[in-house]
Amino acid sequence: MTTFIIAEIGINHNGDINVAKKLIDGAVKAGCDAVKFQKRTISDVYTKEELDRPRQSPWGTTNRDQKFGLEFTQKEYNEIDRYCREKQIEWLASAWDVGSQKFLRQYNLRYNKVASAMLTHTELLKTIAEEGKHTFISTGMSTLEEIESAVNIFKEANCPFELMHCNSTYPMKNENANLRVINTLREQFGCNVGYSGHETGRIVSAAAVALGVTSLERHITLDRTMYGSDQAASIELDDVARLVRDIRTVEAALGSSEKRVMETEIPIREKLRKY
Fold this sequence. Notes:
single chain, two-stranded antiparallel ribbon, globular
């Protein structure tokens, strides 16, 4: 089984299409299967009071300045779509509101993504499920009951999906990964389960692959010291390449469940067993 690897660019582009392209290039070079962004209709996702709050950022002094500074417009998404097709890598985005999900439909994407924060947004989930596209559903900060409600929406719509185990701490400490939940989700919901990680290293992600995840998502960045709330929970491009190699090595090492004498063991067996 080959793990589907998603490089989460999210908002780590800091509103700069050239940074986004460099991150896409890094994901392609590393051998990732897809890159992912985040799409918001700012006025729908946040209240006026929230947007008016003071906040220092490269774009101004209010939360509104920061949110709009990070948000790509149609022009940038058109270029992302063109560039990813040129580079032959899939792209997708997690919508944070119904309008954003409908906006994304114009690009004829193969996959959808439900962010952990949106798992209880019933209207949004129904809007996503009605498209019938394979959907990755992150389960961070969610109870089993909340996950079941989301799963039922996708089952009722006959929309293919897989859950993604997740801890929504940025960055996450390795000891909080709770990877055994991967098996819990697989057994309880009878579906494929992936892993969306917010740790800073690679070992937890490799362990998730050893537990049989079908997909793996990690935030990527050009530099973890850049401005942004997600940068510290991301991995830089050199480590993205190392992570992909780690994943493919673990997959190869897992082999099959059949116990047999390997071809490489036969000469050793013939030599040592004669005694």
